[in-house]
Design brief:
Blueprint lengths: L19 H10 L7 E2 H7 L10 H11 L6 E2 L1 H21 L9 H10 L6 H11 L10 H21 L11 H12 L1
Antiparallel strand pairs: 1-2
């Protein structure tokens, strides 16, 4: 009598608590079938509306966010959570992309910041566009950079609020306090 075939994790259904669609995506993205997704594999799987792949920094930020073991890669559960996270950002991005161009222009970025509760000058938005947009006569931001900017803004804002206990909008920092904020939040 022949032995029953064991179902491999790649042949069967999704593990408990993982959306079947996320599971099949995970299998497709896990190019080396290691059971984990690296920054490189994630980068090859995610694209902006102009079909450019997501940038390294955004992929690394997201992997680190969902990497519970600090191994630099995520398992199927982390990937499932990451897909939900990206979908939420995509929905927000589409809300702010008023002209449905697939990217966020200067005016749309200003409106997005304002609606998110950030009181930032047009000069600051211009600086972000200069830093993160593709060089063109009408610079705009793709989804990957939008996620990166918003995650970093949130992180730095949290660090600032820890010091601005009176919520006055100003803090006094020593140079080392400033460096500590940057290193612990951004690197």
């Amino acid at each position: 009598p022949s032995e029953p075939l064991m179902a491999s994790p790649h042949a069967g259904g999704a593990p408990p608590g993982v959306d079947p669609e996320a599971f099949s995506w995970f299998q497709a993205v896990d190019a080396d079938h290691s059971g984990y997704i690296s920054v490189k594999e994630l980068k090859q799987a995610l694209v902006n509306s102009n079909w450019s792949t997501f940038n390294d920094e955004t992929c690394l930020l997201m992997i680190n966010m969902f990497d519970k073991t600090r191994s630099g890669r995520i398992d199927v559960y982390g990937f499932s959570a990451l897909l939900r996270f990206i979908q939420q950002w995509r929905n927000l991005f589409q809300q702010y992309d008023r002209d449905q161009s697939g990217s966020i222009s200067f005016n749309e970025l200003q409106q997005a910041f304002s609606q998110m509760g950030y009181n930032l000058s047009p000069q600051f938005s211009q600086l972000l566009l200069a830093r993160y947009a593709q060089r063109s006569s009408n610079p705009s931001i793709q989804l990957d950079r939008f996620i990166q900017i918003c995650m970093q803004l949130q992180s730095v804002t949290d660090a600032f609020r820890e010091k601005d206990t009176a919520l006055v909008g100003n803090v006094r920092l020593s140079y080392e306090d400033f460096l500590t904020m940057v290193v612990t939040r951004m690197m």
